[in-house]
Structure formats: C-alpha cells, structure tokens
Amino acid sequence: MQTVVAIYTGQGLADPLKKVFQEMLPDIRLVNIIDDSLIGDVVRAGHIPEVVSRHLVQYYRHAEELGADVILNTCSSVGDVADEAVGTIGIPIVRIDEWMAAKAVAGYARIAVLATLPSTLEPTLRLIQRKAEEAGKEVQLVSGLAEGAFDALISGKPEEHDRLLLETAKRATDAADVLVLAQGSMARMEQALAEATGKPVLSSPRSGVEHVKAILDAVKETKTGS
Predict the structure, then answer these.
(1) I need a labelling partner for 213 at 20 to 30 A (CA). Which of 78, 157, 164, 223 fits?
(2) Is 3-96+206-225's fold the same as 98-203's?
C-alpha cells in the first residue's frame, strides 16, 4: 500500500482534503501531521521564521520514517520551505499549489491571486511568476488581499469572511482572466466566486491531490517495470 503524508500548519483543511483523497486515491494510506502553531507563528512574523522552517523539515524527515512515498505540503504560506527541502529529503515533496499555478499560467495571461493573508499572497504570486518564467510566458499578476477576512474566520464569523472575499474578487475581476485562490481553505468558495464574477476560479486541493496521484502512479509504474 502506498503512503502519503500530508503536513498541515492549521486544522481547517484536513477534513476537506481527506474527502478529496478518498475520492481520488481511496486505496492509499494517508497520514496527517498537523501542527497548528506554525501558521500562527508565520502570521505574527509576517514571514517564515527559522523555527518554522526547522520544524517543517523535521516533519518531512518524520514522514520519511513513516514510509511515505510522497509528502504533501498543504500550506501555501510555507511552500518555499518545501522547495528548499527538495533534494535533502529522499522522497518527493509536493506543494499543494504547484499544479494550480502551472494551470493558471498555461491557460491565462491576466491572473488575479486572492488571499486572506499577506503571508500566503506573496509566496503564491512568486510561485506563479516562477511558473511563467519556466514556461517562457509573460503574465500580468493582480493582488487581491481580502483584509480582515482571516480574522473574521478565526473569530467564528465565516459569513463575514465570505463577504470580504467576495468583495475582493469583484474588485479584481475586471483586470483578470482567472481568479486563483491562494489558500486551500478557500476552495469551498470556488463555485460562489465563479458565479459572482463570471470568471474561472482555480483552487489547490484537487489539483494538489492530482499532482500526488501522478507521482504515485509513476512510482508504481517504475516498481512494476523493475
């Protein structure tokens, strides 16, 4: 049985992502490592503190010890740590948002990135720009920070979170061909945002699991071939 270890910096995405795994990869062993102190440290610092990077790398190594075939880094705010760890960890590490970024670049020239935290917005913008450069394409990036939405969500006001996110999406719509949701936890708003703006909306949970599936299929094929 193949094993995927998903590493979380907060609680919110674990259950929705588990459902995606059950749908797309029902036969794998899924192990979750959740340290909800990490995102709080990132938000307070406004960047990724060294202690957060160190803890994440420790979790990657623990995932290896657990027999993981693939590690899924589920938090876009710390995606840069996953990139830096590639090569030092003996198994593939998937950034949940990597294929989403690649799809945005492949299909659209004007890309609006929506986020509720600056710590997630900036890494996602950088990732999309890097994917554009790798593809030899020029893209126009639009920043859409829904200020106050994250605080509303953690204060138990999801309706306020959704309202602020929707307002931000509407402001970004005219300058964009597609809306990209920087945080996996925003995926539940995908359909509502598409209906309200008339623009395609990309989110990371499903494409992240698709990326994991592609790697697992390749690993299985290699083992079968050998």
Answers:
(1) 78
(2) yes
pLDDT of residue 226: 55
What's this model's pTM, rounded to 2 decimal places? 0.92
CATH classification of 3-96+206-225 is 1.10.760.10, yes or no?
no
Is CATH 3.10.129.10 the classification given to domain 98-203? no
Tokens 């950034």, residue located: 95
Task: Assess whether pLDDT exceeds 80 at residue 130.
Answer: yes
pLDDT in tens, 37-65: 999 999 899 899 999 999 999 999 999 99
> Does 225 have pLDDT greater than 80?
no
**Domain assignments of the chain as residue spans, ordered by start:** 3-96+206-225, 98-203
Token look-up 């920087």 returns: 182
pLDDT tens, residue by residue, 134-146 = 999 999 999 999 9
Taking the C-alpha atoms of residue 41 and residue 106, their distance in angstroms, rounded to an integer, is 34
The Cα–Cα gap between 23 and 18 comes to 9
In whole angstroms, give the CA distance from residue 184 to residue 65.
Answer: 26
Integer CA distances (angstroms), 20 to 79, 130, 156, 212, in order: 20, 27, 25, 12
In this structure, what token pair is assigned to residue 90?
A: 């003996």
What pLDDT is stored for residue 122 in this prediction? Answer: 93
Whole-angstrom Cα distance, residue 39 to residue 45?
Answer: 10
Q: Give dist(CA 134, CA 132) in Å, integer.
A: 5
